Amino acid sequence: MSTFLIDVHRDDVDEARGFWAEALGVRTSSPDGEPQFVTLHHGLPGYVLAIQSIDDDPRYHLDIETDDVDAEVERLLKLGAVEVSSWQGCRTLRAPGGHLLCVIPVHSDPEEFTARATVWGSE
Question: Of 42, 48, 34, which Cα lies nearest the Cα of 6?
């Protein structure tokens, strides 16, 4: 797991940004080129915590970072997930129980990714 997202309807992002920044005592910023995200710096030590602007109902979801999106999606499908959509190299799945998760390509520091990644054995 790399990222925990607080999905907020686009009309409520500014209010949510202020709330979460004050509630957690953190600084916020929007990554260059990704205005739909607001990073909550150091809100979840060791992971990315961010608000994501969506056109849907509010929810939380997790991102799983991988160096092989197709293989990780296939592994999770075999475990019972269902693919919902894909967007810009990311794939959205619904886990058993109904929770959303995204499988995303590596976006963290490569050394940190290598140090923290789980390597799955061949079947």
Answer: 48
Residue 7 pairs with which residues in a beta bridge? 52, 59
**The length of the chain, given as a count of residues:** 123
Give the predicted TM-score (pTM) of the model.
0.84
pLDDT tens-place string over residues 71-104 = 999 999 999 999 999 988 999 999 999 999 999 9
In 3D space, the residue among 59, 54, 56, 48 whose CA is nearest the CA of residue 95 turns out to be 59
pLDDT in tens, 19-50: 999 999 999 999 888 999 999 999 999 899 99
Q: How many CA atoms lie within 13 A of 92 on its CB side?
A: 9
Instruction: Confirm if 10 and 53 have CB atoms less than 8 A apart.
Output: yes
